């Protein structure tokens, strides 16, 4: 479609095309929800320092500039939220976004904005925008965008760069080939699926087409449009909007499905579930119950198969459960059906003990995934969207039923019985019990765990009964993803999101002030031990001394209150439940500062077992502590 040189603000709601969404909704269905919730967004923004949604005025005329056209493109792509830090070089884009239908949230740091955009995508399934000014605005955002690519999010970076007449003349925050490497930041590659610099309005139709195609396809897509300051306000005569495609990946051939069914029917098999299978939870449950197959999951796959189900044997990898190895040793399957996981080091530690005699039937949307982590294992690879594959497989019920597991008992993830505590510092295990009761079982909040010991405690001890409730990063594992991402998740879903974080990460990059500005109901639970404790404990296990991983004790309740949020400090276990209940009842942001017992060893036996499989030997002291025969050659690192 085309737009004239001028347009009213009511004309910018373009009917978008149908885009593949990881939750199974088409983009047009999601778009209907965005427009129907516009009044809610306007209402929520009345008490905010800056508006989050436009005030529609039928008679207001404004020129169609490159910046306005890009904002219109974002609406057509189904974007509803933009996260960033403003600046003079990108005033045109910032103004256009602020006067569009997008909800614009101004953050305190670009990395925090990028983390928030990533988690907002996973909370809603809608693509998100990150906006930055030139120079350090772009470089500050790169870590968060690196994480977005690694996690498989759909995120578009809109940045400013120096206009061509000023390049090479030492402009303020000059952004050009004179100051930054072009390859990788402004071009497609390892960081961005698609990247370009917008030098002319004539490029916009093709740019929009490439964005639309990228957003239409399954999997992640991270893009970067860098727009010179002068180009942002240049006029656009009209804009032809590519309508995109209704993209769906075809189910594998009937021959392939029958082959998989025959392979799985030859003997007992296990199911290994990863994050890529998060939209196939019901189908996977049906398959497991039909066949009796035990189910294990990656750390990111927690909750896709209910963790309270009797066929769930545990989490593999970092923070995982010994019950997985107990099952594999006592009742080894012939094959394992791998659904939507790369079997990366945090998921498997590439342990040979996880490879069954008959190998893997490995299904993934990305054809480059199967056979990489375990290159020597026999692998029947299938490229497919997981939900479509499992649905097709279930049609061969008569074959699959013959593979039923003959075992009468399956090991369950271990639980530790704890004696009642004193009024001393809080044990992390007791904290997780309280989080399980109040937050996991008592609410529908999304729970994010930061890298480090927070990851280990949460992954090992929390139990999720359904999918899309737990978010961690096992690829990039950047400190700050949860402490900033929780704001994006809560903002996008208009509801509670909880971050379980360490004090080190909280000091590195939090967005409490942003949550206060927009009254976003984010909750931070801080494991306060005055250490980078994964590093501290890991160095101790290695027997290395002299490396300092301690940090000064911080009072996060005072920090929170100083920024305008609520804060509660917990010094004893008996106060945990009431504090968490208060946090979940709060309408704005709140920080729960938990003084934990720092010397409690985080559950890293999964990491240790992985190292053992690589032939590492143990010292006597470590054998006593860990009950395994190998040393901690490197401490667990997300």
What does this protein structure show overall?
The chain is α/β, with parallel strands linked by helices. The protein has 3 domains: about 5-230, 3-Layer(aba) Sandwich (Rossmann fold); about 255-405, TPP-binding domain (Rossmann fold); about 430-595, Thiamin diphosphate (ThDP)-binding fold, Pyr/PP domains (Rossmann fold, 3-Layer(aba) Sandwich). About 35% of the residues lie in helices and about 15% in strands. It contains 24 helices and 20 strands. The strands form 4 sheets. The protein has a 6-stranded parallel sheet, sandwiched between helices. Strands 11-10-9-12-13-14 form a 6-stranded parallel sheet. The longest helix has 16 residues, at about 135-150. The radius of gyration is 25 Å and the shape is globular. About 55% of the residues are buried. The model is unreliable at about 1-60 and about 605-638 (pLDDT under 50).
What tags apply to this protein structure?
six-stranded parallel beta sheet, Rossmann fold, 638 residues, disordered N terminus, 20 strands, alpha/beta
Short description:
This protein is α/β, with parallel strands linked by helices and 638 residues long. Helices cover 35% and strands 15% of the residues. Strand 9, helix 10 (281-291) and strand 10 (295-297) form a beta-alpha-beta unit.
Number of helices: 24
**Domain count:** 3
Largest sheet, in brief, is: 6 strands, parallel
Mean pLDDT: 83
Low-confidence stretches: 1-59, 606-638
Strand content is 15-25%
The name of the CATH topology of the largest domain is Rossmann fold
Percent in helix: 25-40%
């Amino acid at each position: 479609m085309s737009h004239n040189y001028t347009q009213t603000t009511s004309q910018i709601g373009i009917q978008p095309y149908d885009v593949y969404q990881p939750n199974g909704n088409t983009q047009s269905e999601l778009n209907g929800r965005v427009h129907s919730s516009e009044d809610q967004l306007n209402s929520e923004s009345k008490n905010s320092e800056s508006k989050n949604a436009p005030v529609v005025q039928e008679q207001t005329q404004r020129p169609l500039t490159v910046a306005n056209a890009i904002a219109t493109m974002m609406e057509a792509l189904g974007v509803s939220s933009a996260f960033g830090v403003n600046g003079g070089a990108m005033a045109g884009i910032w103004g256009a976004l602020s006067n569009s239908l997008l909800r614009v949230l101004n953050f305190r740091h670009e990395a925090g904005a990028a983390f928030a955009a990533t988690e907002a995508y996973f909370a809603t399934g809608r693509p998100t925008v990150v906006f930055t000014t030139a120079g350090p605005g772009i470089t500050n955002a790169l870590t968060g965008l690196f994480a977005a690519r690694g996690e498989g999010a759909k995120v578009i970076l809109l940045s400013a760069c120096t206009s061509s007449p000023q390049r090479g003349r030492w402009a303020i925050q000059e952004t050009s080939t004179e100051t930054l490497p072009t390859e990788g930041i402004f071009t497609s590659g390892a960081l961005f699926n698609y990247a370009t610099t917008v030098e002319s309005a004539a490029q916009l139709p093709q740019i929009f087409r490439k964005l639309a195609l990228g957003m239409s396809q399954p999997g992640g897509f991270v893009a970067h449009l860098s727009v010179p300051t002068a180009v942002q306000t240049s006029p656009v005569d009209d804009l032809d909007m590519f309508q995109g495609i209704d993209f769906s990946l075809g189910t594998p051939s009937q021959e392939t499905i029958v082959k998989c069914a025959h392979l799985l029917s030859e003997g007992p098999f296990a199911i290994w579930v990863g994050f890529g299978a998060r939209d196939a939870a019901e189908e996977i449950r049906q398959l497991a119950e039909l066949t009796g197959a035990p189910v294990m999951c990656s750390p990111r796959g927690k909750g896709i198969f209910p963790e309270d189900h009797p066929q769930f044997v545990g989490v593999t990898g970092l923070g995982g459960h010994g019950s997985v190895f107990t099952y594999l040793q006592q009742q080894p399957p012939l094959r394992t059906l791998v659904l939507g996981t790369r079997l990366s080091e945090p998921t498997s530690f590439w342990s040979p003990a996880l490879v069954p005699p008959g190998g893997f039937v490995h299904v993934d949307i990305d054809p480059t995934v199967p056979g990489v982590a375990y290159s020597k294992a026999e692998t029947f690879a299938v490229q497919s969207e997981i939900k479509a594959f499992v649905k097709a497989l279930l049609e061969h019920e008569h074959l699959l039923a013959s593979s039923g597991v003959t075992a009468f008992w399956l090991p369950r993830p271990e639980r530790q019985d704890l004696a009642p505590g004193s009024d001393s510092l809080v044990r992390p295990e007791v904290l997780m019990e309280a989080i399980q009761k109040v937050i996991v079982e008592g609410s529908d909040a999304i729970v994010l765990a930061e890298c480090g010991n927070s990851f280990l405690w949460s992954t090992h001890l929390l139990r999720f009964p359904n999918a899309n409730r737990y978010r961690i990063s096992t690829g990039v594992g950047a400190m700050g993803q949860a402490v900033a991402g929780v704001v994006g998740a809560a903002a996008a879903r208009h509801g509670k999101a909880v971050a379980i974080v360490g004090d080190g990460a909280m000091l590195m990059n939090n967005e409490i002030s942003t949550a206060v500005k927009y009254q976003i109901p984010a909750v931070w639970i801080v494991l306060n031990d005055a250490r980078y404790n994964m590093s501290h404990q890991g160095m101790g296990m290695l027997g290395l001394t002299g490396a300092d991983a301690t940090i000064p004790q911080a009072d996060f309740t005072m920090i929170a209150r100083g920024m305008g949020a609520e804060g509660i400090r917990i010094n004893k276990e008996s106060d945990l439940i009431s504090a968490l209940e208060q946090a979940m009842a709060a309408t704005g942001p709140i920080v729960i500062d938990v003084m934990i017992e720092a010397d409690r060893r985080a559950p890293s036996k999964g990491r240790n077992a992985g190292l053992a499989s690589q032939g590492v030997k143990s010292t006597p002291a470590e054998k006593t502590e860990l009950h395994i025969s190998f040393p901690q050659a490197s401490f667990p690192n997300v």
